[in-house]
Design brief:
Distance between the termini: 119 Å
Structural class: mainly alpha
Radius of gyration: 35 Å
Shape: rod-shaped
Helix content: over 70%
Length: 102
Amino acid sequence: MTSDPKLIAAQAQVEAARTRLFHTLGEVQNRLKPANIAQNAMDSATTSLTAAAHRGADAARARPYAAAGIAGGVVLFLARGWVCKLFRRKRKQDATQAVAGG
């Protein structure tokens, strides 16, 4: 072993840099594990959806009639097949009664 202080200091710096590098590599490997990536994606999605739900609830509280109108429109849109069947059935019954009565 040498007793040169510059050489000893340089070796200590090399060891410190190597330790930092291996620590960083360990962190990168941990972040790139599929389970951790999936968990981070789920956490991010949950946070985003929760924030959107809170914004929607705040908007509905601020404008309840507009929110009710939009909700009603969405319900009618989703139930459009059922509503159309009701109107067709009613028209068919009216036509049948008109032919039978007339």
